[in-house]
Amino acid sequence: MVSVRDVPSQVLIGVLAEQMKALPGMQEPEWAKFVKTGSHAERTPHESDWWFTRAASLMRKLYLHGPVGQGDLRRAYGGSKALAYFPKHHRDAGGSNIRKILKQLEQAELVGKTPKGRILTSKGVAMLDKLSKEVFAKVAEADKSMSRYG
Predict the structure, then answer these.
(1) pLDDT of residue 143
(2) Tens digits of per-residue pLDDT, 87-130?
(3) Residue 149: pLDDT band by 50, 70, 90 thresholds?
(4) What would the DSSP string read from start to end of 16-59?
(5) In whole angstroms, what is the distance from residue 61 CA to residue 105 CA?
C-alpha cells in the first residue's frame, strides 16, 4: 500500500493543486493576487495559483500530522524576518489565508473539525491515497529502482 509518505512531496502537491482547481468549493478570492502570505514575506507569492498550492500543502500536512490547529499551521508556514542589524526572528504566517482555505476545504468535505484541531475526513484521506498511488506509479515508471517499494 502506497501512502503520502512514499511519494515526493513536491510532485504530490503539484498534482493535488491541479485537482483542487476543479473542486466546486475551491476558488481563489480576488484579494489573493495582492496579499503577502505573512509579515516575514517581502513580496507577494511568485506563483499565480499559490492559493491552490497552499491548499494542497495544507491537506498533506493534515494527513501527516493528524489534528492540527491554525496556530500550528501559522507557525509551520511562517519564516524568518531580518530586523535591521539585529538577528533574524521567526514570524508566523498570516492567518487569514490559512483560515479561509480550511473553510473552503471544510465546505468540500475534505477537512473536519475536532476539539484538538482540524483533521482530514475519510473523503480527504481517500483522495490523497488515490493520488499518491498514481504519483508513485509515475515515479516508479521513470525510475525502475523505485518499483520494488510499491
Answers:
(1) 75
(2) 889 999 999 999 999 999 999 999 999 999 999 999 999 999 99
(3) low
(4) HHHHHHHSSS----GGGGT--SBTT-SS--SSTTHHHHHHHHHH
(5) 13
CATH 1.10.10.10 describes domain 4-149: yes
C-alpha to C-alpha distance for 149 and 127, rounded to whole angstroms:
21
Q: What is the pLDDT of residues 119-144, one digit of tens each?
A: 999 999 999 999 999 999 898 888 77
What are all long-range contacts of 34-39, with beta carbons under 8 Å and residues at least 24 apart? Answer: 35/94, 35/96, 35/97, 36/94, 37/77, 37/93, 37/94, 37/97, 38/74, 38/77, 38/78, 38/79, 38/91, 38/92, 38/93, 38/94, 39/81, 39/91, 39/92, 39/94
**Residue written as cell 488515490?**
130
Q: Which three cell numbers stand for residue 92?
A: 508566523
Cell of 105: 476545504
> pLDDT at position 135, please?
92
- For residues 92 and 71, give the distance between their C-alpha atoms in angstroms, rounded to a whole number: 8
Chain-centre distance for alpha carbon 69: 14
For the chain, domain boundaries? 4-149
